[in-house]
Amino acid sequence: MAEDDLGRSALDPVLELLDARPRFDASGLFSTRYNLHLNPGECALIECRDPRQASLFADLCTGLIPLSEGSVRCMGLDWDALEDRRAWALRGRIGRMVTDGGWIDLYGTHLNILWPQMHHTRTPLGTLVEKATRLGIRFGLPGLPVLPPGRLSALDRRRADCVRAFLGEPSLLLLENPVEMFPSDLYAAFLSALTEARDRGCAVIWLAPDDSAWRGYGQGASLHLRLYDDGLFSMRGS
C-alpha cells in the first residue's frame, strides 16, 4: 500500500474525529464528544449559526485544540502524536477560509496568500507565485495582488481568500461560510475549483449559518450535519 511523504496511506480517511472531547478551559469549545469520518473526495455540509463556534471546530480539525479524551486524526495521523515539524507539514496540506479572512494588513496580500505554503511546505517560491497568479486570474483578480488587504475591496479580499485556500492542491478544505456575498462569477469559479479538488481526493468541510448558503450544492454533499454545543448531529433527510 503506497504511502506519501508524511507516512500515511492513500486509503486512510482524510479526517477522523473519534469521540474527541476538547478541553473547554483551553479552547472555548464545549467539552462534548465529536465524531466525524471523511474519506477522500467527500464533503460535509455543516450548519452552525455561531461563527466563533464554527472557527473553533475548524481549529479542532487542524489539531490546534487540546483534547481531554478521544482523538483527531488527519490523513491517518493523530495530531497529538505528531512532533511540531510533522504537524506543520500536515497543516500545509489543509486549505482554509476563515470567517474574518484572518488578514494581516502590515503586509501585502500576496504575502498573506503565500505564507501558509511558504511556512508549511518546501515548494519553491517561484512555483508558488506562478500557481497563485493563475488562481488569482481564475477567481477574477488581475493576478496576485500586492496591496495590503485593507486597501482591496471586500470582494477582492474574498477572491484572494479563495486563492489562499486552494493554493497547494490541499487534501482537506475547511471552509467557514466561504460564499457569503459571492457574485455569480465568483461562485461559479469557486464551485469549479471545489469540484476539481474533490475529484482528486480532497475532503471538504463547508460550514455555514444556514442551508441557503449552499445554493443548491446540497445534492453533491456526502453528509449534512448541524453543529451544536453538544456535538455534531445529522440533519433530517441527509
From TrEMBL:
InterPro entries: P-loop_NTPase. This is ABC transporter ATP-binding protein.
